[in-house]
Design brief:
Layout lengths: L13 H27 L10 H20 L7 H18 L13 E2 L5 E2 L1 H20 L6 H21 L3 H17 L4 H21 L1 H9 L12 H13 L24 H34 L3 H25 L17 H19 L4
Antiparallel strand pairs: 1-2
Length: 371
């Protein structure tokens, strides 16, 4: 086998590349629309309606440039740096606890004028790298519940546990779900996967009831209108936004719910602003883009030239898919409110950066796949 080259000329999956760029562009535009009112009327943002647009725009341009570099680097080189990435990620997940909490959660490391770094965004991809490398190395040994399957499961639980300590149960859940998907595709027995999913149900209920605010959210989502001015407020406003949009929407920039009704509408609940301004048609278009992205990711995994590439493609695609499904389900009231951003669209520089780095890796896998 030839040694991996650092930089190489590649022919990538153009449909995936175009879909990702379109999602990023829509995200930057909708962040401006969703944030302009609150930014214009706040001294915190210097009364600048383009405050969030400028920050997200800079992150988007920088992240796309990095994507274009990453997609030319042989993904096999990731094996050599996986151990170092694990060490750095664990350190960052611990360092974040030293910073003051924001809204009760320890999720961000302040990095001056560049914004905040969210270590959990790195962790959800690093676990994919770890599992892909280990499963490829050990082959069919994953079929044995002890020690291999349990060992992989403990690694995933370790990362999920560190993220949970930061009061981020949602991303911890994403890590566990994505890990089980990668393990299943990697050859784990279905009964082992099902048994863990079944065990996660009581564990999830325990973690939900461990914090009073989580329990209130869990109980309220069934009928948010019972406490529309309390715990159910955010979900009720989201549903009002989606309902107001109708089929075609109120028009770009015409959202009423972004005017201090939905707290921070440019973050996790930006999909409801899309529904209000662009209507059901806009929402369906966004969902179709994610379906296309997932389909291309699956195709890249199926055509990957080796097990490592296949597992990386599955893991990266699963991270985006699971987050998109959870976010849209939360915004539409299909599951309890939880803090999972909509990939490529919700405001957040570090989230966008690491998602686009992952897309760069996925594009490189596509360039080396079986045509």
């Amino acid at each position: 086998m030839s040694k991996p080259k650092l930089l190489q000329k590649v022919e990538v999956d153009f449909v995936l590349f175009a879909t990702v760029l379109l999602l990023v562009a829509i995200g930057v535009i909708m962040i401006y629309s969703a944030s302009s009112y609150s930014a214009l009327n706040s001294s915190m943002y210097n009364y600048d309606d383009m405050f969030f647009l400028k920050k997200q725009g800079v992150w988007a341009i920088g992240s796309i440039i990095i994507l274009l570099i990453i997609e030319k680097i042989d993904y096999h080189l990731l094996k050599k740096v996986t151990s170092k990435l694990v060490v750095v990620t664990v350190i960052l997940l611990l360092v974040v606890l030293a910073f003051p909490p924001i809204n009760g959660a320890y999720r961000w490391i302040r990095i001056g004028p560049f914004g905040n770094l969210q270590p959990s965004e790195i962790a959800k991809y690093v676990i994919v790298l770890v599992l892909a490398k280990a499963i490829e190395k050990n082959g069919d040994k994953i079929k044995k519940f002890i020690p291999n399957f349990v060992a992989y499961l403990l690694i995933a639980m370790f990362f999920a546990g560190l993220v949970y300590i930061e009061k981020n149960l949602s991303i911890a859940t994403v890590i566990m779900v994505v890990s089980l998907i990668v393990m299943f595709v990697g050859g784990a027995k279905l009964r082992h996967i099902v048994s863990i999913f079944v065990a996660m149900i009581p564990a999830g209920l325990f973690f939900i009831t461990a914090e009073s605010y989580r329990y209130k959210r869990f109980m309220t989502f069934r009928n948010p209108w019972k406490d529309s001015q309390g715990v159910g407020y955010q979900l009720c406003q989201s549903l009002l936004a989606l309902g107001s949009g109708g089929l075609k929407g109120l028009g770009f920039g015409q959202s009423r719910q972004k005017c201090y009704y939905i707290p921070e509408p440019y973050n996790d609940f930006i999909f409801s602003i899309i529904g209000e301004e662009l209507g059901l048609i806009g929402c369906i278009f966004i969902i179709i883009l994610f379906i296309v992205l997932i389909q291309r990711g699956i195709k890249i995994a199926m055509n990957a030239k080796d097990t490592y590439g296949m597992l990386l493609a599955v893991g990266i695609t699963s991270v985006i898919a699971v987050q998109a499904i959870i976010n849209i389900a939360v915004v539409t009231g299909s599951m309890p409110v939880t803090g999972v951003p909509l990939p490529f669209i919700s405001y957040g520089g570090s989230s966008l950066l690491f998602n686009l780095i992952a897309m760069g890796i996925l594009l490189n896998i596509s360039s080396q796949g079986n045509k």
